[in-house]
Design brief:
alpha/beta, 5-stranded parallel β-sheet, 4-stranded parallel β-sheet, 15 strands, globular, binds FE3-S4 cluster
Length: 401
């Protein structure tokens, strides 16, 4: 693989041992995937933040980076951590877990990472432009950045995204190359999609059917940013879809419309939609309702706050989001409205990477296709998958009792 003089110097350790280590990883990846050269990235997004996922080994690794005085070269945000960093005591987190998690965040801060922990960096200040090369590692954010924005990233792992952040470089292969961004399968959507959970169900269906191919969707109309983040997250969870195109919606769709029409085709009917809801639920009596996978936008929070409208709920109702979005919710009075009903907002964390398995809930209700797919495995919980209005109604059952 061709390296510039500066890259050679970094690899030889002339900019420090830590940078050389990161360069080695980037160059090795490039060799494995046949990249001809490295390219500069404009931002990174690092997974592997929750103590539940990285454990003591990961913590030790981060200590090593911080001790060497390594700093990231490009703006880098974090994926959700294992707990609400300030408010963890209210959500059943142990002292031991909290101590380790806080140290992880402090270590990231030391190496120059912006310690906002969220899977929607594009909503809160890390927004790449069309065509820009980035190295992100949260699968739902990768899908959104590639598909909805038209930026370019491979599905980076926690380590490769961090190495890219430290060097400011990534190997030029995979989805960084124009020729690899063409659709491979046409998906004709015959079902009428109305809610985020409908989009999550479609994503679940397509991901499990096509695995890591690139779908081209026909028949999706008038979708919102929230619908798209649900769709991409579910496709990346039941499969490994990192890029999709939607006619009249995503920025690269028009140039591929002609080739898409000749591709192998699958359909998604009303019956498929109904079946997916069934497949993603295994129990109908939730004791926790968990919204915000991917992290809830301000509009999702507003919707729930106004729908609850001060009425008292009878179940735990947790909404996961990022700190900046929570600040907007505070500013608009939505947090108070939710709290009046009994619902709570959690920042910095999510229902999958926090240790929910240690809490006493049997069944978690969600409107997220991704969470419904992951909760049984990651958190050992039963799942009820439904649309947001039904979940709000569940929370209000027996109101006044
Ligand atoms: Fe985000 Fe956690 Fe879901 S990282 S996409 S809320 S599993």
């Amino acid at each position: 693989m061709y390296l510039t003089k500066e890259e050679e110097r970094m690899l030889k350790g002339e900019e420090g041992y830590g940078i050389a280590k990161a360069m080695k990883l980037i160059v090795k990846l490039g060799e494995i995937y046949g990249a001809e050269r490295l390219i500069k990235i404009s931002s990174s997004q690092a997974a592997g933040v929750s103590y539940k996922s990285i454990g003591d080994e990961g913590l030790e690794f981060l200590r090593g980076l911080a001790e060497e005085g390594i700093k990231v070269k490009v703006p880098t945000f974090l994926n959700p951590a294992g707990m609400d960093i300030e408010n963890w005591r209210n959500f059943g987190i142990s002292e031991k877990f909290a101590k380790k998690q806080k140290e992880i965040i402090e270590l990231f801060k030391k190496i120059g990472v912006t310690t906002v922990c969220s899977c929607v960096p594009y909503l809160i200040g890390n927004l790449p432009r069309y065509g820009e090369h980035i190295a992100w590692s949260e699968s739902s954010a990768i899908s959104f950045a590639n598909s909805v924005i038209g930026a370019r990233t491979n599905r980076e792992g926690a380590l490769s995204a961090l190495a890219a952040a430290i060097t400011g470089l990534t190997p030029n292969y995979g989805l960084h190359l124009e020729e690899n961004r063409k659709p491979r399968i046409l998906v004709k959507v015959k079902a009428k999609l109305k809610t985020n959970s409908d989009f999550g169900a479609l994503g679940y269906f397509v991901g499990k059917t096509i695995k890591n191919e690139i779908p081209y969707f026909l028949g999706i109309e008038n979708c919102s940013v929230d619908n798209l983040k649900s769709l991409g997250a579910a496709m990346a969870a039941s499969g490994a879809v990192a890029l999709y195109h939607i006619e009249n919606t995503t920025p690269e769709a028009e140039k591929y419309l002609e080739i898409a029409r000749d591709l192998e085709t699958i359909e998604f009917s009303e019956e498929d939609l109904k079946r997916c809801y069934g497949e993603l639920s295994d129990f109908a009596e939730p004791d926790l309702i968990a919204i915000g996978c991917p992290h809830a936008s301000l509009f999702e929070i507003e919707y729930i706050a106004k729908k609850l409208n001060g009425r008292k709920i009878n179940k735990e109702f947790w909404i996961y989001t990022s700190k900046p979005i929570k600040m907007l919710a505070d500013m608009m009075g939505y947090t108070k409205m939710l709290e009046k009903s009994g619902a709570k907002i959690l920042c910095d964390t999510c229902m999958v990477v926090s240790p929910l398995e240690e809490l006493d809930f049997k069944c978690i209700a969600t409107n997220s296709g991704k969470a419904a797919k992951y909760l049984p495995g990651f958190c050992k919980k039963k799942v009820f998958f439904s649309d947001i209005d039904s979940l709000i109604n569940k929370a209000l059952e027996n109101e006044g009792n």
